[in-house]
Amino acid sequence: MARLIAVSNRVSPPTEAGVATAGGLAMALAAALRESSGIWFGWSGRTVETYTGQLSIDRVGGVTVATVDLDEQDRLEYYNGYANKTLWPLFHYRMDLAAYERSFDAGYVRVNERFADALVPLVEPDDILWVQDYHLLPLARELRQRGITNRLGFFLHIPWPARRVFTTLPRHEDLVSALLDYDLIGFQTQDDCDAFASYLTQSTNGVVTGSGLVSAFGKQSRIGAFPIGIDTVDFQHAASSPLALDAFKGMRRSMAGRKMILGVDRLDYSKGLEERFLAYEQVLADRPDLLEKVFLLQIATLSRDDVDAYQDLRARLDAVSGRINGAFATVEWVPIRYVNRSYRRDQLAGIYRAAQVGLVTPLRDGMNLVAKEYVAAQDPDNPGVLVLSEFAGAAAQLSAALIINPFSREDTAEAIRRALVMPKAERRSRWRDLMDGVARDTVEMWRDRFVGALQAASRADAAIPARG
Fold it and tell me: 90 and 165 share a domain?
């Protein structure tokens, strides 16, 4: 079996102590790395005064972990800068928030070069390298320039934007040319795959075949859609654990007979939290009979709090939630419970199970696994209702949810009202359809499909001329 090397911005394999907080992606990659005696490589998360490129190699949760420290300039220009102030907003259609600075671009290239320099000594001839996400789009080019001829795969966890949006990025051609040094480029949805193909054919005079073979900039690669899932069985086990049961019972006591609408998100402008609050306010204004009978619990874990756009969003959400509570609250009831902290996976599973409505309404999302976790945590005899944005990648797989346009306050408000009164028979029917998909399209299947396609792509394309 070929050894797998996973490469990501940050390395986060689950430990025995932290398995309850680890995400499904970390667990799936860690399992594959253990099976192949592989390596997980990336940034340690630490910053040092002067970059040395020195590797730290450890065993964490049965996985070999290789990390490098970056310096403070790298963190500011590569991570806070190009990755999270340029690419993230652009790929989520927030061109108004995207910052284009030459130092960001230079820092992004520099860190990808540093990753390549540190990674090359670890690579053996038969290794397969699987690179994760938008932080490392040009890493394959740097590895090829350093003589690496191994199979290289890349997976984008966030959306790929429409051609006209992407071309607002300065030097976009250089970024895509570098991306085509991967043997296989994976996307969450067929829409993302089509958007990338559209860019190649309309902006570069590239060629895209029906089999997913693409040619541009004198290079050839393969593209495909590989929707990611959750570790369904493990999550259902978590949902029946003692901690999950305690969280469920505690939440039910706290509900005091009211119905709970639940949102669980990272605090990010792509998640549509402000629009969600305003749609809920519309429900309260239009349906006074629901006052004191429902509440919205919004768990919004803080992230990137040193980026201005996130500080502004947090301030706006504090203001909007405060205004709504001030307008509608009584001495015995608060319409919005807004929490900025994280919870263990098993605790979240119990909270999911207690909620009559799961509200997943991002303005743009690569997949959104919260939607799938909410489904997996439900009681089959009395499941809740999933309200899901059409702009989440999960909507293509979870069509039995109430699919909404999150930009329409009325659309979202109507779906919330409908979910609150949906008959049990309809809730069960919809949940069974949703659960079939969640159980079928797991994170393990995603991993195996991608790695299998990367191996097949390499063999099928062996006769392709050398990269330009």
Answer: yes
In this structure, the number of other CB atoms found within 10 A of the CB of residue 358 comes to 26
Is residue 157 part of the annotated active site? The answer reads: yes
Element (H, E) at 59: strand 56-60
Contact status, residue 43 vs residue 54, Cβ threshold 8 Å: no
Q: What DSSP string runs through 83-133?
A: IIIIIHHHHTT-TTT----HHHHHHHHHHHHHHHHHHGGG--TT-EEEEES
Q: Which of 192, 234, 268, 365 does the annotation list as catalytic? A: 365
Contacts of 176 (CB under 8 A, 6+ apart): 199, 200, 204, 216, 217
Provide the whole-model pTM.
0.94
Separation CA 57–CA 329 (nearest Å): 54
Hey, what amino acid is at 174?
Answer: D
Residue range 305-348, pLDDT digits in tens? 777 889 999 999 999 999 999 999 999 999 999 999 999 999 99
CATH code, domain carrying 75: 3.40.50.2000
At 344, the amino acid letter reads R
Query: Which one of the listed residues 117, 157, 411, 433 is annotated catalytic?
Result: 157
Q: Residue 355: helix, strand or coil by DSSP? A: coil
Model confidence over 198-224: pLDDT tens digits? 999 999 999 999 889 999 999 999 999
User: In the structure, what pLDDT confidence band is assigned to residue 161 with cuts at 50, 70 and 90?
Assistant: very high
Identify whether 172 is a catalytic site residue: no
Q: Are residues 209 and 247 in the same domain?
A: no
Contact call for residues 144 and 116 (beta carbons, < 8 A): no
Q: d(Cα 23, Cα 394) in Å, to the nearest integer?
A: 17
Number of domains in the chain: 2
User: Residue 86's domain spans which residues?
Assistant: 4-229+444-460
- Of residues 129, 183, 127, the one with CA closest to residue 3: 127
